Amino acid sequence: MDAEIIFSTDFSCAKLLKPVRFMSGTGNGTLFEIPYCEPTDFASTPPVLWGPPLFLIPTGWWAIPSIGHDAAFKNLLRKQSGSNLEIGSWITANLNEPQCNDLILEMMRAIKPNPTDFERMQMNAIYA
Length: 128
Prior knowledge:
128 residues, alpha+beta, three-stranded antiparallel beta sheet, 3 helices
């Protein structure tokens, strides 16, 4: 995934500098787009979890899935409309809360298809 992120000085929030696209492997293979400049707080992961034992820092491998979750939760995530991949054929994804949560899990699994035990523990904590 090629993403550029700008962080606040305390790393508690950030914005994408360009959109990020993700092809869902479930269902009919929907193409999602996380728009640029939408703020995120990394799935509301509290700073107390940034240290031991989980080390869920905002710059971790789950940062982009967290941004996708936040965009979906705020109804800012877009999806490809129809089978035409022309520019401008994007619509609001309109995902409900369980779908937003499933999306973050799917994106994390796409990034880490064979996670270590520690990464699986992080993944489960974030999903929960």
